[in-house]
């Protein structure tokens, strides 16, 4: 084999180089061909390998020399792009909702509730208890800790309509966070190249997971009242899609909560097309003036695949979510989850279960509801007073976000820059659209730190909008 | 829209059904067409949706009736297989190495060290400390906790050969376990449909991750001395592969530790093909009579992508691994990791860092080395005495497993069954082959519970082998 000889030649030359003086000339290719009884191609291959390692350098027409300086040259990894090729799936940049910022800014961009909204005492004592328990040193089953599976099944089962069979603990697969649940659901239920219907706008993490899975994204127009059913029907007909991802309760970003009639229409459509509804109940613990009503509770035919996360409401350190699915869909999801992560830390599962089964968890959620209501109303009021150009079409009944419509002429990147110079961080709405944005929006999170500064934040947004208005007129 | 009308008809009929007596006859299709001003197709669609929900049943030629019994019928999810189609990538069954078993069996199948080999006291106190710290309620950066990134970089940097640039903390991406690192590496560096070279036999988790990523698996013959370099060279030439996955130190299952000469040859081959070596250093903490020597320490050209896991040596509850990569490869890996799981629990990262930076961790590893040596020698001795038909071609210098060659005529499934009836659980070697097994093998783990029973285990294996020998002769 050429390769074998070329690597043997490289190895022998390397030994020689180690004791040679920097700048020493290597024997000519012809001499090396003669010495090793190898072809010129093989010798050149060996020399190229040594060059790639920075051990020698060749000067055209003169020869190959031991490099004078062997360290600290900045590496050129350009060869890697050749090896990698273009990405098979272009993934969007990480959302601005994930940015971590210093404490002195007014942060309206985040996707995560501030620490003061977390059940901190419950989380800390659950970790302390778990540190003493079996879960600290044992390995749970791949589908999850049976007690936690049972809890997720019981929660959804409690809402299941009379006459329908509630989910069983075996229908539950535990994930290390809802992002993993989304990625797995899209890979397992749709697959690369096949169509997946998504609300537009929708959660940017779902857009990211869809890009990673390589599915063909089909946007379905949606708004503060939920998706347009006629468009949904057309999208099913036209694409032959067998799955629709949606957030029927307090959608991120629009805040939409589907009416019972809409829920029934969507479910009928999904059933008549032999399709799945991947229901992301991300804000289950964040009801304010309404309680979440999972669509999965209406279905026992295996059409709704239900995603429930605890990360945002319990703690970002407790990355635990569950997917509830029935039949072959559940098998596919479990197989993908195992190939992806084998199993989820049993200690995190034990902590999640500990927190949500404490009586104090219910008290916490009641308190949280009041805090979210006050924060939401404060931000809505401040925007209406100080930034009338940012229109809240519907005040959400739950969730963590306001979806503000801006004038169509708004220069969004400039607005974000101007606000940031004024110490206010906002999330431009474009990231929430799976295809082209259909308008200018801001997503403003009212669960971030320091709600006392919301009026100042609204003032800064109002000023930045007025300036754009002024410069257009001027 | 037909769909819209059909779901409206279904909704109205559903209201009627709710108050109707079981067995009541629905109006005829013709009557419904007239009542709703809809087409027969639309009416039929509505009726099919109600049938799918178990609310009505149709009797051919007679009509449609309200179902008598609406609950507790076993659901038929057959429609799902139509929606899902055949799996895009056939994934192997979960390995027997993951089975959880009662305490009274002799378990030689497991892939995980027994609890008595874990630094239990260190793990528990790290969790207790972390429960009081910031990590319990905060969100770390997507690539990992900076202090943990620095630790991984420093560990590999400490072994980096003189003259080469050591990795930086920014080269490290933290994962929720090494399985996630493998899946991401295969997706990000290879991608669906493209060739990936794998040792044969190799770790079954890597075979599973490769199947999930949909890469084209190319087996390269390997054994107790490591991969066959000529075959590796041929595989690179023939397939144009740009990546080779391998375990150069204490490979699972063969126990192979590459000689320095082999390591250099493989690295030269990888470099001359402009390719990546995905080095899985799974047994870094399990050296016995040799220390692991990562190939990544020989390379600063971005050719080696290094995977280091703490789950097996720290605790199954601390699912933490890292991938060290440079250049565009690192960017691709981070982008996939974020799309897959957004970020890894900061608390688990803090616990992992706490454990491995305690002085007692070093003491634990020294003690572990003696325990593994004693267990390995006990099992090797017992097999040589009681099961001479199971040949250990090379006693591994580290790791957790013995790779025993059996007579070619062995009926492996029968052997596994016979051993299990005798209370001994073994892992048939076939699962470790990415394509056809090239011989009959057992993988026997010496880090499981109750090493005192190893002689009994070996006796059971010996008896089962003799019985097969006897029945062939008889």
Oligomer state equals homodimer
Number of separate domains of chain A:
3
Beta-strand fraction estimate of chain A: 5-15%
Radius of gyration of chain A: 29 Å
Proportion of residues in helical segments of chain A: 40-55%
CATH superfamily of the largest domain in chain A: Type I PLP-dependent aspartate aminotransferase-like (Major domain)
Short description:
2 copies of one chain form a homodimer. Chain A has 474 residues and is α/β, with parallel strands linked by helices.
Which descriptors apply to this entry?
4-stranded antiparallel beta sheet, homodimer, 16 strands, globular, 474 residues, 3 domains, Aspartate Aminotransferase, domain 2, 14% strand, Aspartate Aminotransferase, domain 1, alpha/beta, 16 helices, Arc Repressor Mutant, subunit A, 8-stranded mixed beta sheet
Describe this structure in words.
The structure is a homodimer of 474-residue chains. With 474 residues, chain A is of the alpha/beta class. The first copy, chain A, has three domains: 2-66, Arc Repressor Mutant, subunit A, CATH 1.10.10; 95-111 and 362-473, Alpha-Beta Complex (Aspartate Aminotransferase, domain 1); 120-357, Type I PLP-dependent aspartate aminotransferase-like (Major domain) (Aspartate Aminotransferase, domain 2). Helices cover 44% and strands 14% of the residues of chain A. Chain A has 16 helices and 16 strands. Chain A has helices spanning 2-19, 29-36, 40-52, 78-84, 120-132, 146-159, 178-189, 204-213, 229-239, 260-272, 311-314, 327-341, 346-356, 359-386, 412-421, 454-473, and strands at residues 56-59, 63-66, 106-107, 172-175, 195-200, 216-223, 226-227, 243-246, 276-280, 304-309, 321-324, 391-392, 401-405, 424-425, 427-428, 441-445. In chain A, strands 4-11-10-9-8-5-6-7 form an eight-stranded mixed sheet, with helices on both faces. A four-stranded antiparallel sheet of chain A has the order 12-13-16-15. Chain A starts with a helix and ends with a helix. In chain A, 53% of the residues are buried. At the A-B interface, helix 1, helix 3, helix 4, helix 5 and helix 7 of A face helix 1, helix 3, helix 4, helix 5 and helix 7 of B.
